[in-house]
Amino acid sequence: MISKYSITSSFIFLLFITSSTDATSRLAPALYVLGDSLLDSGNNNYLQTIIKANYSPYGEDFVNKSTGRFSNGKTVADFIAEFLGLPYAPPFLSFKPRDKLPLTGLNYASGACGILPDTGHHLGDLLSLEEQVGLFQDTLVRLQGRYFKSSKELSEYLSKSIFIISIGSNDYISNYPATLLHDTNKRFARLLTSKLSHQLQRLYNLGARKIVVSEIGPIGCVPAITSQNKHKGKCVEHKNRLVAEYNSMLPAMLQNLTSSLQGSSFLNGHAYRLAYDAIINPSNYGLMDASNPCCKTWLSGIEGCIPFAEPCDRRDKYYFWDGYHPSEIVYSHFASRCINNASFCSPFSLKELVKM
């Protein structure tokens, strides 16, 4: 039975997605995904960690149900895959060393990880951004041995592929320095952008050329934060100001990479302002609730979904799925704007990027 929610979500993309996975209709040869739980498609299922989403009601509106996505349905990466005419990028860890890897892309994202190598590791084994880039390097060795006759062929394939990255919120949520010096925030933001820049250069050196990097969203607005901090209005604004410092440094860093690395295009996904506006003005986005989790969660509604709890009704009207993560309808707004709007993914849209 198809829900009203599924119809609504699909309708948003009806005018511009390409659902066929036939090679002739693809806008890019592959989609590679790196980041945290906002993009994880199931890598944490294969890791010794308590951060998992491989149970109901996660995936309630996804075709394969509980795959390990931290949402009720698709993520931004899934909507972008549909636009590109590609299958959803499967989790890298779902493949054994001798398995044949797909040419259409892979997902390396890991829930609770961060830009800093030690972020989230108190929660168990996770894949930091550095480790994810390392796994991508391993991927290329396996692909070249099976699919490509020369390094030139591999380079051409990679130069046309799309890379998307969303990471950094966990560095602030679980790894921000406890020492509150007046310059702590600027120094921490500089540290994160420097570490991120290094990993982006590693991706470039491996062959990546078209890379979309998302800002960090307004962490001060997520239920897990608002429920534990005194605040006026809908959000804990001093938490938002922390990530705003990082977001303010991101454009210049990405522009510097584009200018210095020949043939590269680094796009900045302005996730913060869209997310904040949708939370403050939910009715403008067809939402009714932008403060509370949609699923029933642990710890008075601030953590992950309680396993096998009955999912809420009208999931297309909630901004938050659980205590931290958006619902599928919100991800669809992010993806559609990145695809079509050069002011959201700048300096040009994803539609323009694939034509370059």
Helix content: 25-40%
Taken in chain order, the helices and strands follow as HEHHHEHHEHHEHEHEHEH
Shape type: globular
Strand order of the largest sheet: 1-2-3-4-7
Descriptive notes:
The protein has about 350 residues and is α/β, with parallel strands linked by helices. The protein contains twelve helices and seven strands. The strands form two sheets. A five-stranded mixed β-sheet has the order 1-2-3-4-7, sandwiched between helices. It is globular, with a radius of gyration of 19 Å.
Write a short abstract of this structure.
The protein is an alpha/beta fold and 356 residues long.
Question: Topology, pairings included?
Answer:
Elements: H1 4-13, E1 31-35, H2 76-84, H3 129-146, H4 151-160, E2 162-166, H5 169-175, H6 184-206, E3 210-214, H7 223-226, H8 237-260, E4 265-269, H9 271-280, E5 289-293, H10 298-301, E6 318-320, H11 328-340, E7 345-346, H12 350-355
Parallel strand pairs: 1-2, 2-3, 3-4, 5-6
Antiparallel strand pairs: 4-7
Helix pairs in contact: 1-11, 2-11, 3-6, 6-8
